[in-house]
Design brief:
The chain is built from nine helices and eight strands. The chain is α/β, with parallel strands linked by helices.
């Protein structure tokens, strides 16, 4: 099953604008069972099937059909083989797949999966410098290590900040309490990360985040599902009230596409065992549609 029934390959005379692939695991923690993440990408694909026959129809989120009246230009190449606790192997395979998509050239769209996936995903952009990173998340993910693991789901933005090809970080949707202590907040601020709380988005709109992204920059968007409110994204490991709405998120994605260039997009931290009535999978599917629509239009 493919996202929106997209093919694995386009006709020889057409190059894809975006290529979708999935992954369940990046770097998991010792003695932690993360097996529930393995089915995330396929759950999103399954939720997309309801709209698969409607790709050519008018989409009110996008102000027109998904491909804006042009030939379909997106493929789905399936999942990277990842295994829980095969941390180095998982990172290598995800990075290699992302690099292969970038050489087409096309925009990689990663469906996941645990929140350590952005580390190898962003590592693949080392030949694409400079890139900015827009993270949507309830948490800053800046721990240096947890239980001896430096590449786990509490550390992606810390590791990404160390990548020389990353020009800057904008972290949006922050709220409540997570694993960050004073030392992590101070480290992120020293780096120069721009914090935009969920409360600021509710009060000022998405411009509170977009203003930090330089005009014309190449930007990778990394979306942790708990950045949205659990009313629309309940299928996460740590539900946190007060998150972004669906409309705020699609306005943010569209805004990045107009202001900058979306060079990559990942959706992570979807935990299917905690989903309610398939709502998270459905919302995730619609967010991916909006990301593809923004990529096609940029």
């Amino acid at each position: 099953m493919a996202f929106l029934d997209f093919p694995a390959n386009l006709p020889e005379n057409r190059a894809p604008r975006a290529v979708i692939f999935g992954a369940g695991h990046g770097s998991t923690y010792p003695d932690k069972d993360s097996s529930g993440y393995a089915g995330a990408a396929d759950a999103i694909r399954a939720a997309s099937q309801e709209d698969a026959s409607l790709v050519g129809n008018w989409d009110f989120d996008l102000g027109g059909p998904l491909f804006d009246g042009r030939p379909a230009s997106c493929t789905d190449i399936g999942n990277v083989d990842t295994r829980m606790h095969d941390n180095a192997g998982n990172r290598a395979r995800i990075e290699a797949q992302t690099r292969s998509i970038l050489t087409l050239p096309a925009v990689p769209v990663l469906l996941g999966g645990d929140d350590s996936l952005p580390i190898p995903f962003l590592a693949a952009f080392s030949d694409q410098a400079p890139v900015w990173v827009l993270q949507i998340d309830a948490h800053i993910d800046w721990r240096d290590e947890v239980d001896g693991e430096r590449y786990g789901y509490s550390s992606p933005m810390r590791r990404i900040s160390e990548m020389p090809h990353v020009a800057g970080l904008v972290q949006v949707g922050l709220r409540a309490v997570g694993s960050a202590r004073n030392s992590e907040i101070e480290a992120a601020r020293r780096y120069g990360s721009r914090f935009v709380t969920a409360r600021e988005i509710h009060a000022e709109g998405v411009s509170a985040a977009l203003k930090h992204i330089p005009q014309g920059a190449r930007c990778v968007v990394t979306l942790d599902c708990d950045g949205l409110d659990p009313a629309v994204m309940p299928g996460v490991a740590a539900r946190t009230p007060g998150g972004l709405t669906y409309t705020q998120l699609i306005d943010l994605i569209a805004g990045v596409g107009w202001r900058a260039t979306i060079a990559g997009f990942d959706l992570v931290e979807f935990y299917p065992p905690n989903d309610i009535g398939g709502l998270t999978a459905l919302t995730a599917s619609r967010l991916v549609v909006n990301a593809i629509g923004a990529i096609v239009r940029q």
